């Protein structure tokens, strides 16, 4: 990378915690190098307590923008100047674009997830999905899935600070789309079993499965996972979470979070640079790693 850096290099960041495991710096920096673009992408360990300072740094340093990941996706909205229509609907941001000091928040997680499924030859249009999670990524996935034509969504989450967000998501989907959405308490394991049994896909859209929770799974009873079921996880490090390992043992088709990460990143890349990411080149590089 050093031979590419110059006095004109534009900086793009990634603010989240934990974040040192992320493949996003590799993805974007390799894409910049492939296209000969004078940009650099760095990961910053920033949690909600330092997020406001981090956003101020984007303006102060003249950064082109930043990605935002857990646990900052919803909190960050109050520090930005504008939100895209999708980000406003979701109530979360994963991409910031700096246009001459005006910071606009976007959300690309939902389109990334749906595109990732398509690349894995999985179609859920007109079908039912059961999903765990109510944070920024989960909300984006649910809303995009509903907009794309998923027939029914069963959303499970703990009774935590995100539960009210899930209630808002369900109301929004039922009001604005043709999809039927229902919210359940994750403690209701019998309902979880029943909804998974009626679904073509089960998705984990939480951080359970990645460090420091890499030895955990929201599904503890493998018999909930029949072999005809597709099991997806937004986590991509490790590439096979405990959930996906259990699903494979049951004969399920599995999809990890790498495709979602790749395609949501490609959307952000184009916003920052005005050019399309060389997706197939990056896909081969990431799968090799």
From TrEMBL:
Pathway per the UniProt entry = Aromatic compound metabolism; 3,4-dihydroxybenzoate biosynthesis; 3-dehydroquinate from D-quinate (NAD(+) route); Metabolic intermediate biosynthesis; chorismate biosynthesis; chorismate from D-erythrose 4-phosphate and phosphoenolpyruvate: step 4/7
EC annotation? 1.1.1.25
Cite the InterPro entries for this sequence.
Aminoacid_DH-like_N_sf, NAD(P)-bd_dom_sf, SDH_C, Shikimate_DH, Shikimate_DH-bd_N, Shikimate_DH_fam
Per UniProt, residues of the SDH C-terminal domain are 257-286
Name one molecular function that GO assigns to this entry.
shikimate 3-dehydrogenase (NADP+) activity
Tell me which UniProt keywords the record has, alphabetically: Amino-acid biosynthesis, Aromatic amino acid biosynthesis, NADP, Oxidoreductase
Subunit description: Homodimer.
Q: What does this protein do?
A: Involved in the biosynthesis of the chorismate, which leads to the biosynthesis of aromatic amino acids. Catalyzes the reversible NADPH linked reduction of 3-dehydroshikimate (DHSA) to yield shikimate (SA).
Query: What name is this protein filed under?
Result: Shikimate dehydrogenase (NADP(+))
Organism expressing this protein natively: Carnobacterium maltaromaticum LMA28
Q: What is the lineage of its organism?
A: Bacteria, Bacillati, Bacillota, Bacilli, Lactobacillales
Q: Which gene encodes it?
A: aroE
């Amino acid at each position: 990378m050093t031979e590419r850096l110059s006095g004109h290099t534009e900086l793009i960041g990634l603010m989240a915690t934990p974040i040192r495991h992320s493949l996003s710096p590799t993805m974007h920096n390799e894409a910049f190098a492939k296209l000969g673009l004078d940009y650099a992408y760095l990961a910053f360990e920033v949690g909600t307590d330092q997020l406001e300072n981090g956003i101020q740094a984007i303006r102060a340093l003249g950064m082109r923008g930043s990605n935002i990941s857990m646990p900052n996706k919803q909190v960050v909205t109050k520090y930005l100047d504008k939100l895209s229509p999708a980000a406003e609907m979701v109530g979360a941001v994963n991409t910031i674009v700096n246009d001459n000091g005006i910071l606009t928040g976007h959300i690309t997680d939902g389109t990334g997830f749906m595109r990732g499924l398509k690349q894995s030859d999985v179609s859920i249009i007109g079908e039912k999905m059961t999903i765990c999670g109510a944070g920024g990524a989960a909300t984006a996935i649910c809303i995009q899935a509903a907009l794309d034509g998923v027939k029914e969504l069963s959303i499970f989450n703990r009774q935590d600070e995100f539960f009210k967000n899930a209630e808002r998501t369900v109301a929004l989907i039922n009001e604005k789309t043709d999809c039927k959405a229902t919210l359940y308490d994750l403690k209701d394991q019998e309902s979880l079993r029943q909804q998974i049994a009626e679904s073509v896909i089960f998705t984990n859209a939480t951080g359970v499965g990645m460090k420091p929770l890499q030895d955990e799974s929201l599904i503890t009873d493998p018999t909930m996972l029949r072999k005809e079921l597709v099991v997806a996880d937004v986590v991509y490090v490790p590439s096979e979470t405990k959930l996906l390992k259990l699903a494979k043992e049951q004969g399920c088709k599995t999809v990890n979070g790498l495709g979602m990460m790749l395609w949501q990143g490609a959307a952000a890349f184009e916003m920052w640079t005005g050019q399309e990411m060389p997706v197939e080149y990056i896909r081969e590089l990431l799968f090799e790693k």
